[in-house]
Amino acid sequence: FFQGVGKRDLWNNSFLGVPGYNASDGAMPQTFADFWYETFDSDGKLKDANYDAFYPRATNMGTGQGFNNLPNDRLLLNMAYLRLKNVTLGYTLPKQITQKAYISKLRVYVSLENFLTFDKLNGLPIDPEAIPGVSYFNSSNYNNGRVGVGVPAMKTASVGLQITF
Predict the structure, then answer these.
(1) Nearest Cα residue to 81 out of 6, 146, 1
(2) Taking a C-beta distance cutoff of 8 angstroms, is the pair 117, 2 a contact?
(3) What is the biggest distance separating any 2 CA atoms in the chain, rounded to whole angstroms?
(4) Amino acid 24: pLDDT
């Protein structure tokens, strides 16, 4: 019926946590409104700064983007969740109605699997149950350990009709 995890933290070092930081072409996230920065005037005096930014300062190091992915608690994701694993809702029509059509029993039902998840990921497209970086469609290790690239649990909805004559 329900399944979940009460406490699980995961460090989000992927493009979902810090968009653009894995770019090697220098396209760093200066377009984001809330990144760490300092600007100075021509005399070297501090002109403007954003020390309480959501995103850390981006560093363009060519292909070696390690400085942008240093562990910090800003990128720590709360992976606790509660998921409705499966539920079936059905209704059996009264015999007074079904007997008129020469049917002894008629039942209509809807079955849902993995249809509803409560989490604190603030809209990030991550399945809290999926293992980070594991892909069943790709045998390379490119995504190994990356958050948000695993295969999510499939959502399934089935509608059925059971008729007994």
Answers:
(1) 6
(2) no
(3) 93
(4) 52
